[in-house]
Amino acid sequence: MDTTTRININGDEAAFVSDPFLNIDHVHLKVSNLENSVHFYKSILGFDVVDMDSKENTVYLGLKPMSSDNNEISSSILILTQTNKNTKVIHQPNRMRKEAGLFHFAVLLPERKYLAAFLQHIQKNLDPQFYEGMADHAVSESIYLHDPDNNGLEVYRDRKPSEWKWLDQNKVYMVTEPLDVQSLSSQHGNEKWTGLPVNTSIGHVHLHVSNLAKAKKFYQRSFGLYHTATYPGAYFFAANGYHHHIATNTWIGTNLIPNSANDLQKPGLAHFAIRLSTEQNTIERLKNHLTKNGVVIDEKATDFRKHENSSFYVYDQDGIKIQLLFE
Q1: Which of 11, 67, 212, 226 is most buried, by the most CB atoms less than 10 A from its CB?
Q2: 3-state secondary structure (DSSP) of residue 109
Q3: Model confidence over 16-60: pLDDT tens digits?
Q4: Domain spanning 7-326: CATH superfamily
């Protein structure tokens, strides 16, 4: 991340451009029934348990090893933590609670054939109550679900970047149109779902926020992301020519209560993590830049994840907790 180069992003001067290697590292959810949620993510999404912390009631989910001979433990891309069991949980999505937080997180599959296999898999195995829909977004093809705690899920595959249509230097063309299920099935009808394939990742997160202008100030000016698309009631942000790593919307209104990231009484988003590739002196410059932009840095917060040598937390304008990880 070059924090010394001043650039012009969509007409707004920003202090730096985001790291070209930026990606969403993982998502951490609080769930009301850990056993049920682990079963859902294993049986429906194809995650594998890669680690667990019984003391903290936390399970780390990632990809299955390529073979039984592979002793390498894969890193977790989804963390689940049990809410306080003595708390009466009301299963309401953010849109019902009118709380800022997660709209959905998106699991990115490496090829279209896997999306076809996943579609056939859920047609046979998913309880219809968890199904939400399908869409073609021009840059990608998507299937939407929610988990037992009404946390939104997108499973998608990207079209090749050469097929994306850029309207100008930083704006990408995205739409919401019906998914061509016939094309998907006819081209890849023989594919079988065997779990998340190698190179699956968290492609993006989409958030409920209370104010789009404030969200843009935070994610564009503070983080240096490009504002890549605008949709009615929604802004999309990305690094390095991607369509979006983070999206924000006000579709449930603007009078939202702050996100309850650290409240283990409530299911929902605990945090999401952004991984950057950078050097220690640049980390300090980034911290200084965030502080100058009014962002509070939290280096004491714990999230039950294994220790990271270079990591800290920030909160956006709606209290949504973000972990910054550095390689």
Answers
A1: 226
A2: strand
A3: 566 777 899 999 999 999 999 999 999 999 999 999 999 999 999
A4: 2,3-Dihydroxybiphenyl 1,2-Dioxygenase, domain 1 (3.10.180.10)
The residue among 220 and 309 whose pLDDT is bigger is: 220
Tokens 């451009």 identify what position? 17
What is the amino acid identity at position 302?
T
Distances (CA, A) of 38 to 29, 32, 80, 89, 109: 11, 11, 8, 18, 20
Q: Where are the beta strands (DSSP E) in 32-151?
A: 48-53, 58-62, 78-82, 101-109, 131-136, 140-146
Q: Which two tokens stand for residue 175?
A: 């739409």
The terminus-to-terminus CA distance of the chain in angstroms comes to 12
Q: Where are the domains of the chain?
A: 7-326
* Integer CA distances (angstroms), 58 to 28, 34, 120, 201, 323, in order: 10, 8, 30, 20, 17
CA gap 97, 99 in Å, rounded: 5
For 184, the 3-state DSSP assignment is helix
Residue 84 identity (one-letter amino acid): N
Q: 249 falls in which pLDDT band (50, 70, 90)?
A: very high
Q: How many residues does the chain have?
A: 327
Q: How far apart are CA 104 and CA 93, in angstroms?
A: 11
Alpha-carbon separation of residue 56 from 22, 48, 53, 59, 86 (angstroms): 29, 19, 6, 9, 15
Other C-beta atoms closer than 10 Å to the C-beta of 114 total 22
Contact between residue 265 and residue 83 where contact means Cβ atoms under 8 Å apart: yes
